[in-house]
Design goal:
single chain; 184 residues; mainly alpha; 64% helix; globular
């Protein structure tokens, strides 16, 4: 699906878990690719705006104080145009910060801006630019797969054994509920 939409798998995963808002471009591509009526996808506009504003207000550039989601919902409900303006302002700020980092990363101003762009956004940008493909890593994974003769449906047991036996690392798989809000 990510390939069909021209986005990285990690970005799709974030959207599926409501950790990233779906952009208009992705909505249009989704509609075209899977012959879906766009109105079926956009019925939750307020919910999407709440998610976008909530993400924007979690930006480290705004400090450590967090705005509760209930307050964000109140802002969107009372003044959706203001909420949209704040989201647009944040998007422009982030784009400018990224451009400054890219264009003159060693410059003092750009170095100061580095702290205002969340690390996960920078990583997502790299993954997107590389289309989530890193040749050396991919080749190494394929070689390891052949060496270990991993079966498609159950690689975890063999990988856990390898980590334990060769690297002295013990892996325990926990249900998602034990670590709510954590990224995998």
């Amino acid at each position: 699906m990510a390939e069909d939409l021209g986005i990285s798998g990690s970005y799709l995963n974030l959207m599926e878990r409501n950790q990233r808002a779906i952009s208009a471009k992705v909505l249009l591509k989704l509609s075209e690719t899977y012959d879906i009526d766009l109105s079926d996808l956009t019925s939750g506009t307020d919910r999407q705006l709440v998610g976008e504003l909530f993400d924007a207000l979690r930006d480290p550039a705004l400090g450590k104080e967090r705005v509760p989601k209930s307050e964000v919902e109140d802002v969107v409900g009372a003044s959706p145009a203001t909420a949209r303006a704040l989201v647009n302002l944040h998007q422009r700020h982030t784009a400018l910060s990224r451009r400054m980092l890219r264009d003159d990363g060693a410059d003092g101003v750009a170095s100061a801006m580095r702290d205002t762009v969340p690390a996960n956004d920078l990583v997502r940008d790299v993954l997107h630019r590389k289309r989530n493909y890193f040749d050396t890593l991919d080749r190494a994974a394929e070689k390891l797969n052949r060496t270990m003769k991993l079966r498609q449906g159950e690689p975890m047991a063999a990988l856990r054994e390898r980590l334990r036996d060769q690297h002295k690392i013990v892996v325990r798989i926990q249900p998602h509920e034990l670590l709510p809000g954590m990224l995998s």
